[in-house]
Here is the input.
Amino acid sequence: MSMIRDLRAVVRPSRPAQRKDSGTYDTTRDPATPSAVVDCAVYRDGARLETPAPLTPQEAMRQVRRDGGFVWIGLHEPTEAEFAGIASEFGLHPLAVEDAVQAHQRPKLERYDDSLFTVFKTIHYVDHDQLTANSEVVETGEVMCFTGRDFFITVRHGGQGSLRALRHRLQDEPDLLAKGPSAVLHAIADHVVDGYIAVASALQDDVDEVETEVFSPGRGRTPRGTDAGRIYQLKREVMEFKRAVSPLLRPMQLLSERPMRLIDPDIQKYFRDVADHLARAQEQVIGFDELLNSILQANLAQASVAQNEDMRKITAWAAIIAVPTMVCGVYGMNFKYMPETHWKYGYPAVMAITAAICLGIHRTLKRNGWL
Here is the structure.
């Protein structure tokens, strides 16, 4: 059990191990290479078997069936034709194969006769100098895992979610890899969920920034509608995050609670830890969504209040202007007898009375908060 106690340190170290031969396990697909297989290795007793030339999946599987161990194959965005031979060799279910090739799947866990098919959505936080109404905050990818008795196959989609560093760390801990494919499945699940927690922490800063701008008194206001656009864009990105986190909770609970013959009992208990971390990430995402709803409603309410204030000011000034307009309208009429028109002080008196009335209206409206 001592080797299992080190599992957390292996799949979640502070800094990835440095290797001189790191290029050997590079999981970035070479555009010049027609094959989607980016790494294929046989592991026996927790150690990677060195071979003079890269193994094909068929060769690796023949070694495993002859001498034991398990094979770990990594693929990046394979086509149907590229995946057909591997699917046939390992007896993968056609429905799972179709999902793995087409991608854009919901996180899930499916059990077939001799394998488990697990879908993870990876989340990557996109750095940005300033949050705008068009900012991309999170970027998603997919990792699909086929777990068998003597094989483990990963199919990645998207530019994020590389498993190279994770493979290196596991290879540095042969006691853990000796537990077989279920140890790799746990390591990937833990790696993905740790990514969720890191993205949630980064999103917290964006949500706090928006909240501060909306509720801070005397803030420098942006043009009308800009805040609402930024809040709505952030809410959409949070919803994308939520679609990755929430559906995965049930599969992690199944892996941690229900005995499965393909999952080592010593590894299964550590899926509970993954499920706990996932539940925490889900709570954060739901909290972000609810908080952004409140912020958006508050922002729209502030915009409505500002419009009402503008209308009150316009109405107040219209009331003030109505007085001289009325006076000028009276004097514009064609009256023959208007005594003050021949009075020496008639014009100044009318102007003074008009100004006094306007000033009185202005003071009254200002005292009542209309101006």
Q: What stands out?
A: The mean pLDDT is 81. Residues 265-331 form the longest helix (67 residues).
